[in-house]
Cation transporter
Amino acid sequence: MADQCCAGKSGKTALNDPRWRRVLWIALIVNAAMFAVEIAAGVAADSRALQADALDFLGDSANYAISLGVAGMAIAWRARAALLKAATMLAFGLWVLASAVWGFFAGSAPEAETMGIIGAAALVANVVVALMLYRYRTGDANMRSVWVCSRNDAIGNLAVMAAALGVFGTGQGWPDLLVAAIMAGLAIWGGLDVLRHARSDLATTAAGEAAA
């Protein structure tokens, strides 16, 4: 109960705080730029883990744009936006999982050096964004979804770098595919987490309206 009360206060304060919107704009720009870098590098290096991480950057850019659009709206609308973002996270996770399975049968060994360099750059970008968003992690479902995306991204970048080491050491593509599958699991788990909080916010709003 105490956590729920704190979450509500944090969300209300952040929504009226221009620093919250400024952080979202920075996150949006960083993620859009990293999508362009990673998708090009992923295709050039034939790395499904990098391609998956690039699509994650693209999805996060859309999520930040949605968050900026609903930041001043009522909590019910913010919760509905979070439901949409949860659906995109789940769809991304399922797509990456299918891509990893396909790559197991048809893929080749990617370029480990490119994976490592781009993965390190993406990690720096995501850690910076995650640190900026850390203070807002206990807000409403919409704000929590932003934090979950950033947290998962940083974890995913570490996994990409580990995959690069695995590809370099073995000369095979399975570490790249394994990381892609792990990233799919993170996206699915994060989507379910955001979905649960969004439904809770909607239920709380509905109960309040009924009581009024």
Observations:
- The chain has one domain: 2-211.
- Residues 174-211 form the longest helix (38 residues).
- Helices lie at 2-15, 18-45, 48-70, 75-106, 112-133, 141-170, 174-211.
